[in-house]
Design a protein that fits this description.
Layout lengths: L3 E5 L6 H12 L5 E4 L10 H5 L7 E4 L2 E4 L1 H11 L10 H16 L2 H6 L15 H21 L10 H15 L6 H12 L1 H11 L11
Parallel strand pairs: 1-2
Antiparallel strand pairs: 1-3, 3-4
The structure holds glutathione.
Amino acid sequence: MTGLHLYIGNKNYSSWSLRPWLAMTATGIPFTETLIPFDFPAGNPRFREISPTGRVPVLHHGDLRISESLAIIEYVAELYPDAGLWPGDAKARATARSISTEMVAGFRALRNACPMNLRRPKERIVLSENVDGDVARIGTIWREALAASGGPFLFGAFGAADAMFAPVVTRFDTYRLVDDPRTLAYMDAVMDHPAFRLWHDAALKEPWIVPEDEV
Ligand SMILES: N[C@@H](CCC(=O)N[C@@H](CS)C(=O)NCC(=O)O)C(=O)O
């Protein structure tokens, strides 16, 4: 079978693309990538050609096309069990999957109000109570996982759950949403990770501006 090939959107804005890219890069899973920039306001018709959902990220592996960031991570975790994307302990693994799924399904207020935008100057903006509720819940998730594992990442070593929450880490940082020291320490651990730095540095060099994500 051929190698893994990941299609992604703009590194500055594509929060869903960041998740599987980071999971694979941080754990040494080999893959190649193609970046297809968003072409707003029309959307990029090329997404339809490569992805069953018309969205990125999408992983190609031979004839297989896998959309959905978490499904991609699950697939590569099965191909590379030694990468340690999920915790070895069954209960910790269940918690990691539970919070990763909560991330995919939830926190819409935060995601809508605070788009991932790595280039944006760091500054707090006025937010609704719904966003505050999302921020509080995410803080609780992180603190509980870190207290149980001892850190520095949610389940000890960097894994799938950290990758799923990495775009939220950047939102908390960009929009200055938290001041709890334990939360800030976790955010620093993610943002200092060499794999995250690679993505971040590439994002800052991108020329594209997406007005919808410049809140
Ligand atoms: N639930 C999907 C979300 C994918 C998604 O919304 N991707 C955005 C980019 S971050 C996209 O492709 N937007 C283009 C469009 O919807 O036309 C996942 O987890 O991968």
